Model the fold of this input.
Amino acid sequence: MQKSQDSRDRGAEDLCTVSMRICQEGHANALALNKECNQIAVAGRSLLKVFAIYSDGFTEVCNMRGGKNQNLSYSSNDVAWSTLDSNILATAATNGVVSVWDLSRFGQKKQLHVYNEHERTAHTVAFDIHDPHILVSGSQDGTIKQFDVRNEKSSYTYYSNSESVRDVKFSPHTQYVISAVSENGTVQLWDLRKGDKSILQFTAHSGPIYTCDWHPTKNWLATGSRDKQIKIWNMDGKASLEHTIHTIAVVGRVKWRPDRIYHIASCALVVDYSIHVWDIRRPYIPFASFNDHTNVTTGIAWKGDNSQLLLSTSKDSTIYRHAFKDAVRPSSKANAQGASLGHRGDISFARKIKLTTTEAVTHGSKINSFVRQRSSNHEDQFHLAQSDVCQFILKPSYIGYSLKEEITHLKEHECFIGCAKELILNGRKLVDICEHNANVTKKYGKHNATTLWNFVKVLYGSNEFGKHEIHRNSFSKQKSVQTLRRPAQITHAHEILQWDRNERNDNNNNDDMADTVVQLDMDSTVMGGVSTTSSKQNYPPFGSVILSETQILNEITFDNFDLLREGFIYVGPPDFSKMHSHQESALHHDVQAARPHLDLKAESKEASPPPNTPSVLKVNSAPAIPIWEPHQFVAESIMLQGDVGDVQTTISILIAMGETRKLLQIDDALVETWFQTYIDQLHRYQLWNEACKVMNLSWLRAVRELNQQSTSVHTNCGECGRSLAGSVGWYCQKCKSMQSSKCSVCGLIVRGLYAWCQGCSHGGHLEHIMDYFANHFKCPKCGHLCEYN
Done:
C-alpha cells in the first residue's frame, strides 16, 4: 500500500501547475469531477461547461449554454457529477430549479429533467454515493428535497426548521445518511428513510455555516462558517468537537485531502484569494498555500485519490490544476523570534534555538525510524522550530504605575465582556463619553484603547472641526482635509510685536520668567486701526509665540522676518530667536525670492541711504498657513486597532464620534467588516442586547438590517411532527387539531410567552416550563431529553 502511494506521488511530482481561462462573460461558482477524474464540470451564473483534463492543461468538451433558449435555470450555484454514471450531471440554479443533464444526448438539448419545486434559491446538490439515481438538494427556503432521476417529481421533502440550507453531503460511512448545514449555525443528520425528523441536530457555529465535508476514512465531519473557523466533529454517537482551525476570512469551501488523515483544504468566501491546506493538529498557520488566483476562489476538489493535485476555480474566470510541489509553505517562513512590550514596560522576547548534539542523539532513534518509513514524503511533515522565551522586567522606580496600585490581570474574554457592558456609545457629550470609556478601558487593562479615547477627547471634544469650513490646504503636505481656523483679526500687528528695547534689556536678567504662550484677548476689538485695549505694551514672556495671520504677513518687515518660523512669529529675546532659527522653511524661500536684488554697481555710485529708512515687505496674497490636522492620524490609529483585532475599540469610537467620523474618511466596506466581526464576537458571548444596540446605532444600512434577519421561527406539530409552515397559528392541517397550542404541563391553551422545544415540538407556559425543568430533565409529555436553559 505504501509503495503504490509513493509511486503515485512520484508520478504527480512530474506534473506542474497549469491554468486556463474559461469564460469572458462571467465567473464560475462551483466545480465537480467525474468518477474517472479525467473531466471537470464548471458552473456559474453565465457558465456551464465540461473540460477534459490533460497533463499540459484543459480542453473544452461541451458547452451546455450554447443554445438560444436560455433562462434562469441555466444560472447555477452548484454542480454535482454522478458518482457512478459519467454522463449524468446535476445543477442547482438561482431561481430554485434543480436540473439533471445527460451528456450522452446529441445536440444542445442535454437537459434531462427540470425540477421546479423549491420556492427560493437552490444552494447545493449532491448524488448518493451508493445509488446513482438518488439526488438531494438544499435551498434557501429551508427544505431538503430528494429526487429519483428516473421520475419527473421529487420523492420526499425534509424540513430543516431553518431559513436556509447551504450545503448537503452524503456520508461515506453510513448509507442513506446525509448531513445538512444551515444559516442558523446548526448541523443536522437525516436518514432518507425517516423523513419526519432529523436523527441528530446540534449547534456547531455562532454564525451561518456555508460548507461541510465528510472525512473519507474517519467518521469526522468538517464544517466551515462565517465565524472564520473550520471545526472537525466526531460523529460517533453524540457529536463532539475534535479540532478547531482559525482562518483569516469567512470559510466558503472545505475538502479533505485524500491519503492524508489530518490534512484539509479550504478557501474563503470573501477577502482571501488563496487556497490553504491545513494540518488540523496545527490550527493557526496553514501547512501549504496556493496563491495563484487573483480573485476569490469559489470551488476546490482533489483529483481523485491523488493527494498531489488540486483543482480549483475562481471569480477571476480561470481554472487551475495545482501541483502540491509548487505550493507555498507559510510554516517554513514563520518567524520563530518575537518580542512584546507590556503595559508596565517589561519586555518578553522569544529567540530561535537549535537542537544541540546531545538532544539530537537523545531523539535520534525515534527521528531516524520515522524518516525511514516516510522518506519519500518528508515534505508532508510540518515545519518544526523551537524558541526560548526570556522576560525583562523594569525596576519599580521606572514603572509608570504606583507600587501600591494593584492591577488585576483578567483574561481576554473577561475584558471584552466587561468593556462591552460598560462602554457608553451615545446619549452624552463626546467629552463625557471619551472620559468614561477611557476609565473603563484602563480598568480592564486596554491601555492602547485608553490612549486613543483620550486623543479623541482632546482633539474632537470641543467640536471645533464641525463648525468650520473644510478645505484642502495646498501649502500642506498632509493628504487629509484641512480645517480653517479663524482667530481674532489683528491690524498693525507689527506694532504689537515690537516693544521698547530698553525694557527688553532690563527684563533679560529675570531668571524667574516662565515659558508661556501669549493669548490674544478675543473680546478686544480693533476699530479704525486703534485697539480698545490698554495702550501700554507689556513685555511678552520669555519664549512666547503667537499664531500669525494674513494681516501679520502683510505688514511683516525684514527686520522681524528672522522671527518667522513655520507659520509662527517668535517675540522673545533676540539671542534665543537666533539659537532656534529655522531658515529653511517654505515661507522663507518664498519671501527670499521676493526680495529686491541689489545692484552692486549702482550701489557704488549712489550714496548710502539714511540709517532709519523703513523697509516693509508688502504681500498681496499670503499662502495659507499649514495647520496640523488630526484626522489622518486618528484614522490610522483606529485602523491599527482594527488590524490587531480590537474591533471593539474601533467601532465604539466611530459610533461615539457621531457625524465627526466623516472627517476620518475610512472606507465604508472596511467599517462594515469591523461591524460584522464585532457583532459576531458579541453573539459568541451571548451579549444579545449589546449586539442589538450596536446594530441600531450603525449608520450602514447593511448592518442595521442584521437584526431584521432570521426572525422567523419554524414550528412543528407536537403530535405528528409535521411542519406548521403555512398554517394559521398552531393549527395542524394533518391532525386537524390545535393540540400544540396547549401547555404540556397544565394542559391549557398558552396565551402570551410560549417556550417550545425544537427537538420534540412540545412546549407550554414559560413559567410552567421553568418550574418543571428545575427538577426534571425530560419532556413531561413524550419523555424527550429537552435541554432547557
Summary: Residues 712-741 form one domain. The chain has a mean pLDDT of 75. The radius of gyration is 37 Å. Residues 396 and 402 are 9 Å apart (CA to CA).
